[in-house]
From TrEMBL:
Residues 103-118 have a biased composition (Basic residues). PANTHER family: RIBOSOMAL RNA PROCESSING PROTEIN 7-RELATED (PTHR13191), RIBOSOMAL RNA-PROCESSING PROTEIN 7 HOMOLOG A-RELATED (PTHR13191:SF0). This is Ribosomal RNA-processing protein 7. Belongs to the RRP7 family. Residues 11-194 form the Rrp7 RRM-like N-terminal domain. It comes from Stereocaulon virgatum. Residues 91-121, 224-288 are annotated as: Disordered.
Length: 313
């Protein structure tokens, strides 16, 4: 592998950060992984883009702990300046302040538009209702991207400057050095632990199931209230949306009918205008027929005169 001195500092607007991968018993050779860093510039601007960094080609074993340790302890950014780390494909609930990132996988099936009138309930925000994970650590895909959200823009700029300084000074960064005991182990230990997590505790499954059913019932009740409201309120044209479910009580139905009558009164002037146009068109058509009749009548009269003058020899 080429040394970091022969690697360009930047390519296509991205700062290149070489990472030395730790040697393994199964692969004792030295290897370098290249991480590409740039300010986050999404196609659709967000409130957090100005204080975020975009990472390309993160290692497959990356975790939030890895990224925070790399930028803080190894690159030199003060601790506590990173607010969140989101890997491509992750889905997290956004906070009210807009601080959390929302990155959806390109192949997310839930992003498809629902058909009009569908009675299915969207279950995207079922926090606390998921079944326990059977893995103690997620692995990323090759070439995956990530977004690092900082507490402010100054911290983001400081991290970017620190990355540039590390490259210029040719400081070697060893991926994952110093956090070996802070993240779940890979290799055989990962599969041994997976065997234990494959069958979660009964109490955890029961808790997640109860949370799921509670949230589902709440969403179902909310959908029913929305449908009932649509049955009671006419639209701008005075029509009432037809939805599934029982009819409204007579009092509410009478009020809705009265509102619909008011809407018709508002449209009355416009209807008269169109009726006036129709009447004028009928008059013009009748006048045209009379004119043609008079022309035909005159033509017949002239033919009769010519016939009366004709005298055979």
């Amino acid at each position: 592998m080429p040394s970091s001195a022969k690697i360009p500092l930047q390519i296509a607007g991205y700062d290149i950060l070489p990472l030395s991968l730790p040697r393994l018993a199964s692969f004792p050779q030295a290897a370098i992984h290249y991480l590409y860093v740039a300010p986050h510039q999404p196609k659709l601007p967000t409130s957090t883009a100005s204080r975020s960094l975009f990472l390309v080609n993160v290692p497959f074993d990356s975790t939030e702990t890895h990224i925070k340790h790399l930028l803080s302890a190894q690159v030199g950014l003060p601790a506590g300046r990173i607010e969140d780390v989101q890997f491509e494909g992750q889905r997290r609930k956004a906070t009210n302040s807009g601080g959390a990132l929302s990155i959806k996988h390109k192949q997310d099936k839930n992003s498809k538009k629902r058909k009009r009138g569908s009675s299915k309930i969207a279950l995207d925000d079922m926090e606390g209702a998921e079944l326990p994970s059977t893995w103690d650590r997620d692995l990323q895909s090759n070439g995956l991207t990530a977004v690092v959200l900082f507490v402010d823009r100054a911290s983001m700029n400081a991290a970017l400057k620190a990355v540039k300084a590390v490259r210029k000074e040719q400081i070697e960064l060893v991926w994952g050095e110093g956090i070996e005991d802070k993240v779940p182990a890979l290799g055989s230990a990962r599969y041994l632990n997976h065997h234990q997590l494959t069958y979660p505790d009964t109490g955890q499954i029961l808790e997640s199931t109860n949370n799921y059913m509670t949230k589902y019932a709440a969403k179902e009740a909310s959908q029913a209230r929305s449908a009932a409201k649509q049955r009671q309120e006419p639209d701008e044209d005075g029509f009432i949306t037809v939805t599934r479910g029982g009819r409204t009580n007579p009092a509410k139905q009478e009020a809705a009918q009265e509102l619909a009558e008011k809407q018709k009164e508002k449209q009355k002037g416009l209807e008269d205008f169109y009726r006036f146009q129709s009447r004028e068109k009928r008059k013009e058509r009748a006048g045209e027929l009379v004119r043609k009749f008079e022309e035909d009548k005159e033509r017949v009269r002239k033919m009769k005169e010519r016939r009366s003058r004709f005298r055979p020899e």
